[in-house]
Amino acid sequence: MDGWLYDYRIFSLVISLGSEIAVFVQSMKTLEVRDQVRGVSLTYARFAISAAVLTIVPLVAILLRECINRPLRIKFELATIPILSTLWLAVGGVALNFSRTTFSGISCNDISDAATQTICTYAGPISTFSFVPAGILLTYGMIVLIVAGCSQRGGKPIWDYSVRGPRVGEVVL
User: Fold this and answer.
1) What pLDDT, in 10s, does the model give residues 57-95?
2) Got the DSSP string for the chain?
3) Which residue in 50, 52, 43 sits closest to 98, CA to CA?
4) In the prediction, which pLDDT does 2 show?
């Protein structure tokens, strides 16, 4: 049990981190053309950049703690992961709403203005890549919650241990 949960945790954190960096880069490229386009609100891109900064820092800290063999406790992860997931769900929703309302029924290739075409091109991937970390982190959080709940029910609470902890391997689902 210990092995697969730990492996899934690292996989989840790394894939989420990659998606967040992709959203950050695409949002920065979107904001590069903001002065050339009037009347289009790019709040979704600013929100995505803020979310990326707010989540990249804790995920890198979690991964660095793993590298120095001082992993976080499960109860801390169960408090942090849902907040980060909710933030990315909101970013994805805002970006998707912007994309659908602003460029509804229009192909990005049909737009003649280069700046507007850039915004159109990046809006869809920003929303898509925002939902990736949300889904992955929510799934990871639910799995850890189920494992922790089963351990609590079995009389061996693991809330104060890390995912790599010895008690996690003893949990029977």
Assistant:
1) 989 988 888 788 777 788 888 888 999 999 999 999 999
2) -HHHHHHHHHHHHHHHHHHHHHHHHHHHHHHHTGGG--S---HHHHHHHHHHHHHHHHHHHHHHHHHTT-PPPHHHHHHHHHHHHHHHHHHHHHHHHHHHHHSTT--GGG--SHHHHHHHHHHHHHHHHHHHHHHHHHHHHHHHHHHHHHHHHTT---TTS-TTSTTGGG---
3) 43
4) 47
Q: What is the dihedral of CA 95, 98, 99, 105, to 10 degrees?
A: 160
If phi > 0 it is left, if psi is from -120 to 50 it is alpha, else beta; for residue 104 that is beta
Question: How far apart are the C-alpha atoms of 51 and 22, rounded to whole Å?
Answer: 12
d(CA 10, CA 32) in angstroms, rounded, equals 33
* Residues contacting 167, CB < 8 A, separation 6+: 151, 156, 158, 161
Structure tokens at 105: 């029924």
Cα–Cα nearest to 11, from 167, 163, 148: 163
CA distance 162 to 88: 24
